[in-house]
Structure formats: structure tokens, C-alpha cells
Amino acid sequence: MRVLLTGAAGFIGGPVAEALAASGHEVVGVDALIPAAHPVDAEPPAGVTRLDLRDPDGLDRLLVGVDVVCHQAAMVGNGVDAGDLPTYAAHNDLGTAHLLAAMARAGVDRLALASSMVVYGDGRYRCASHGDVAPMPRRVADLDAGVFDHRCPRCEALLEWALVDESAPLRPRSAYAASKVAQEHYAAAWCALRSGRAVALRYHNVYGPGLPADTPYAGVAAIFRSATARGEPPRVFEDGRQARDFVHVTDVAAANVAAVEAVAEHPVGLTAYNVCSGEPRTVGDLAAAIASVGGGPAPVVTGEYRAADVRHVVASPAAARSGLGFRAQVGPDDGLKELATAPLRPTV
What tens digit of pLDDT does each residue of 267-285 get? Predict the structure, then answer.
């Protein structure tokens, strides 16, 4: 198949391009090379065209003969302050809207969309007495006292995390999260208007060689890896017990190949899948693995907190296994050891 791949020069887009080509697909790569993810003087790699998705003429030319679009391009990260809101909306919301409109003009009716676990917000929690509950907002008094878990809104007992499946409500808590929900909603509307088919891949915490270095947009794995490279201890907020699922970038690429190849057999509309390892770890585990293998100082658990941070979000891999035949191949124990010495992507 001929696949238009957006964000093809990125940390995830590059491995996706390689995996698609290795599976026999013709890849038409585009990337805007935005400064949040690339050096300011970056040039597109061979086979990738520099293109801002808000350029309708460029999109129309590149969509000729395309069978399916694999949309990775996005401004990533959680946003460092409210001033980031227009940038996320401009790149993620408006860029996706232009892409979908161009697909409609070109008659392309299949989409694999990079989404994110951030659409779930707080994740899923369970009370021993009351079952699944929506957690109370964390109290400053609790956080100051080192009590970081959410409380039950009915009995105020501390809650345990549970696996999040794709039926969970979408409750974005950041500029990035809101933009990823918007992308899914635009894609669902496009499906309804055009009888299109879309698969939204909700990535959990993606890591691996080529993570962007030294940027607040890259995520905790890159921040810890960058600290180790500087000979500094990774600084772990709260108590380090925040639960996450860390998924290797090569597994994310494999999930995209599965989505590109399977979307035509999906029903009209948007179908979402978690993309995860299925082997949760804590943020403290991540920091310890990177520091130990990288030969740097041991992590420092600071007790610092940001009240709006998500405490736990851990995915169920079941739907992706049944719907896409996707199962992660790189376990976090091996993958995080690799990350400790893997090269990072410069962003300046």
C-alpha cells in the first residue's frame, strides 16, 4: 500500500517509516520539523518532505494515489504553562483538521491516528469498599504530608489503581491531552461524514533510542536519561510509586503497521486501542534502571509534587491483542536498560 506518514522524521515517526517499508509498503513521508522536537537547523531525512499540515496545496499533491494515512505529526508533551495552549491547538487541532479535509478531497478513507493515554486523565481507580470510583482531586494537605494517592469520594479511603481499557471516559487534564482528544473527535466526525475508517492508537509512555533530550516536552524517561548523561541523579517527584506503562518505540512502530494493515477491515468509525507493554512499572523503577545501567548517581526521591499531575495510569493491552493482533515484544526490564546508554535526539 501507499502510505502517507506525517511526522516521519520524529522519534516515533522514523521507526514507523522503517517498519512500514520493511513490511513492503510505499511510504510518503512528511514532517514540519517543529523546534519543540527538532534542532532549529534540522533538515528532513532522505525521502521526507518538509511540510506543515496546514498547507492544503502541499497535502493535495502528496495524497495522490495514497491508500491510507498514518498520522504521527503533533506537538507533544503536556505543555509547561497555559501559554502553550494556542500552539497545541494550532499544530494538533488545526493541522489534523486540514489533513482530514485534504483526505476527503483525495478520496482517502483510511486513517491510523497517533493518540495518547493522556486522553484518560487520572486513569482508573478502585476503592476496596465501593469498587470503581472517580477519584477526588488530591488535597494540598495530603500532598504536603506525603500522601500522594487519591481518596475515595464516598469514604475517603486511599484508592488503588486499576487497568484502564478503551471504554474509559476521556478526561483531558493538559493542553496536549485536550488536543489529542480533539484529534480523536475530528477523526470520528470525518468517519461519520465520509464513511471512513480510523484506528486511534493510544500510546502509553514511549521510550527508546532517539528520545528528544533536555526538553520539558519529551517526558520523564528522557529527563531521567539526560540527567544521567550529565552525571546527575535523576530527580523523582512524589514518592516514586507513580504507576505507568512504558512501551518501546519499536513496539509502537509495529502497532502502527498492524493498524495500517487492519483498518480496512474495521467498521466505519473510529476504533481506539491502547498501545502498551502490559508490564507496568513505577516512575521510581524507571529512574533506578536508567541510573544503574548508565553508571550515574542513584535517583533522589524529592517528595516534590505538582498537584495537577496524574498519579497512576496503567493500560489494558487486551483490545489491541484481539483487534490488531498486537503484542509488545520488548519488555521494560530489557528496554529500559537499553535506554540508559542509548543516544538521545538533540533538540538545540
Answer: 999 999 999 999 999 999 9
